[in-house]
Amino acid sequence: MKNILAKVGVWAFIIGIILALVGGFIGPWSVPALVVVGIIVGFLNVSDKEIKPFLFATVALMIALYTAGSTVAANLSTLGVVGTYLYGVMGSINVFVFPATVVVAIKAIYNLAKD
Predict the structure, then answer these.
(1) Under a CB-based contact definition with an 8 Å cutoff, are residues 73 and 87 in contact?
(2) Could you tell me which residues come within 8 angstroms of residue 55 by beta carbon, excluding any fewer than 6 positions away?
(3) Do the Cβ atoms of 84 and 24 come closer than 8 Å?
(4) Interior CA angle at 40 toward 36 and 92, to 5°?
(5) Whole-number Å distance between alpha carbons of 24 and 27
(6) Is 51 exposed, middle or buried (0-12, 13-18, 19+ CB in 10 A)?
(7) Cβ atoms within 10 Å of 63's Cβ, excluding its own
(8) How many CB atoms within 10 Å of residue 7?
(9) Coil, helix or strand for 63?
(10) What is the pLDDT along the chain (115 residues), one digit of tens a residue?
(11) Where are the alpha helices (DSSP H) in 27-75?
(12) DSSP character for 75?
């Protein structure tokens, strides 16, 4: 059973990345799916020993996406269509990563509280 859940977690991550990339080009239709897949990834893909590296990486990614997104948004007139799509992709990746980060952060807090 654990092996099956691990495979579901891996596929959820792959699907989430693909949805984020496609969603950035097509529009906000993928937001609910990205949130659900992000939650699945947070529950199934991150073991207790991976919590700290995962949180470090995802928080760094979200900060980088937010910062770059602000720059892209401020320069949309210069960047044109490419900027619009780039902004959409960065936002979609953030929407995917955020719920996974929240789930894993709650797991980390629970692990601290139970000790």
Answers:
(1) yes
(2) 101, 104, 105, 108
(3) no
(4) 50
(5) 6
(6) middle
(7) 10
(8) 11
(9) helix
(10) 778 887 888 899 999 999 999 988 887 788 999 999 999 999 999 989 999 999 999 999 999 999 999 999 999 889 998 999 999 999 999 999 999 999 999 999 999 998 7
(11) 31-44, 51-74
(12) T
Q: Which two tokens stand for residue 107?
A: 């797991």
Q: Quick one: tokens of 17? A: 């990345």
For residue 8, give both structure tokens.
């579901």
**Residue 66: predicted pLDDT:** 92
- The three-class DSSP label of residue 88 is helix
CA dist 94 → 45, 59, 103, 112 (Å): 17, 10, 14, 26
Q: How far apart are the first and last CA of the chain?
A: 27
Sign of CA dihedral 60, 61, 62, 67: positive
Cα separations in angstroms, 45 against 51, 63, 79, 88: 10, 22, 36, 25
- The CA distance from 83 to 78, in Å, is 8
Residue among 102, 99, 106, 101 at smallest CA distance from 33: 99
